[in-house]
């Protein structure tokens, strides 16, 4: 697929990383599930070569209390997908899935980190 086709994909909206994180806390994680699904859907819109099923990605993290490994894999892959979307938008890919997983253990900061990296994609496409 040519770069031109990628740049014509619909852009997402920049969101406040702190706002995403706070809404996640206030709603006891419910907002995070909606946000996580949307992020995976949006990165695929930026670059159709990104392989992701937003529903499967969400299921992997939703059932993390039963299955230990899939949520961490899904969260790490989402970071890689954001980096790939950054690359497709012409931004230096600096999103790390490993950092995203680790930040999940620090006050659940993964959405704050991922949203700030995703905003670089939307800013570059604006």
In a few lines, what is going on in this structure?
This protein is mainly α and 126 residues long. The protein has helices at 3-7, 17-26, 30-46, 54-62, 69-88, 97-104, 110-125.
Could you name the key traits of this structure?
0% strand, single chain, 67% helix, 126 residues, 7 helices
Map the helices and strands.
Blueprint: H1 3-7, H2 17-26, H3 30-46, H4 54-62, H5 69-88, H6 97-104, H7 110-125
Helix pairs in contact: 2-3, 2-7, 3-4, 3-5, 4-5, 5-6, 5-7, 6-7
Could you walk me through the main structural features you see in this protein, from its secondary elements to its overall organization?
The protein is an all-alpha fold and 126 residues long. It has one domain. Helices cover 67% and strands 0% of the residues. The relative contact order is 0.18. Residues 1-7 have low confidence and may be disordered.
Mean pLDDT: 88
Integer tally of domains: 1
Compute the number of helices.
Answer: 7
Our measurement of the CA-to-CA distance between the termini, rounded to an integer number of angstroms, reads: 21 Å
Shape label: globular
* Uncertain residue ranges: 1-7
Q: Strand pairing plus helix content: what structural class? A: mainly alpha
- Regarding quaternary structure, what we see is single chain
Q: Determine the fraction of residues in helical runs and give it as a percent range.
A: 55-70%
